[in-house]
Design brief:
Blueprint (H helix, E strand, L loop, with lengths): L11 H4 L5 H18 L5 E5 L11 H20 L8 E4 L5 H11 L4 E6 L16 E4 L2 H11 E6 L4 H15 L9 E4 L1 H7 L2 H6 L12 E3 L2 H11 L21
Parallel strand pairs: 1-2, 1-5, 2-3, 3-4, 5-6, 6-7
Helix pairs in contact: 3-4, 3-9
Length: 253
């Protein structure tokens, strides 16, 4: 008796093929959306930073302070009117600063998200991500979409190519006013950022406007960072139970 062929979406040969790529891309959008909706995740504070940081290494200060800031943010979120967690810490899910952020949220008794991506080295989900809120991505652009989609603030700690890529993605969206809400951006570690990126030179060469320097702020300690976040974050409504997306601004409005 002839066997029936598998349904296309049950066929690994098709799903892993070039023709199956659009299905894989859509899956990396819909699977997190399903979970965030079921878990009543409405908004995030995103932490970026080096996967190579550790409490004992040269970036040890930043590892410890990322942990503390994530703890403070989570405690603040849990104290807001409406109950639950209106802001959830979100990291790239791996080691280093990412692990520190997830760890800080766990220390405060809160949930946190890890948007991990499979890489040959460095990137494995850390153990402090809340069970059920760890996601594995293949496509960088889909991972970055989810960073931006729910972000109500971004804190960028010292990092390398990946951190710079993610940071400038958000700054570009803000500069071009592609989003219908403001996303405060904090650059944690002013000495690092001012050495690594010469923002003033970009203005001097005319490649950005002087006003673009107002898209971000430098911070150097967890308490100051928390104060800025409290004053600048657009909180989701108390009644919100579904993801509060940063929607695209309609051209001309």
């Amino acid at each position: 008796m002839a066997h029936s062929p598998p349904l296309a979406y049950h066929d690994p040969g098709f799903m892993d093929s070039d023709e199956g790529r659009p299905v894989r891309i859509v899956s990396e959008y819909l699977a997190p959306l399903r979970t965030f909706s079921a878990e009543y995740i409405t908004a995030t504070v995103v932490f970026f930073g080096s996967a190579r940081a550790s409490s004992a290494g040269v970036l040890g200060r930043y590892f410890d302070e990322a942990t503390e800031l994530a703890r403070l943010v989570t405690e603040w979120s849990r104290s807001l009117p409406g109950g639950g967690e209106r802001l959830v810490v979100c990291s790239g899910g791996g080691p280093g600063i990412m692990e520190a952020a997830n760890r800080g949220a766990a220390l405060a008794g809160g949930r946190s998200i890890g948007l991990n991506i499979g890489l040959p080295q460095e990137q494995r989900p850390n153990r402090f991500i809340t069970p059920g809120l760890s996601f594995e991505f293949h496509y960088f652009f889909m991972r970055k979409l989810w960073f931006a989609h729910l972000a109500h603030a971004l804190v960028a700690f010292p990092g390398g190519f990946g951190t710079l890529d993610e940071l400038f993605e958000i700054l570009t969206l803000a500069q071009t006013r592609k989003l219908d809400r403001s996303i405060p951006v904090l650059l944690y570690g002013s000495s690092y950022w001012n050495e690594v990126v010469n923002f003033e030179a970009l203005v001097r060469h005319g490649t950005i406007a002087a006003a673009d320097l107002e898209l971000f702020s430098f911070v150097d300690d967890p308490e100051a960072a928390l104060g800025l976040l409290k004053s600048r974050i657009e909180l989701p409504p108390e009644s919100a139970r579904a993801p509060c997306f940063a929607r695209s601004r309609v051209p001309g409005r």
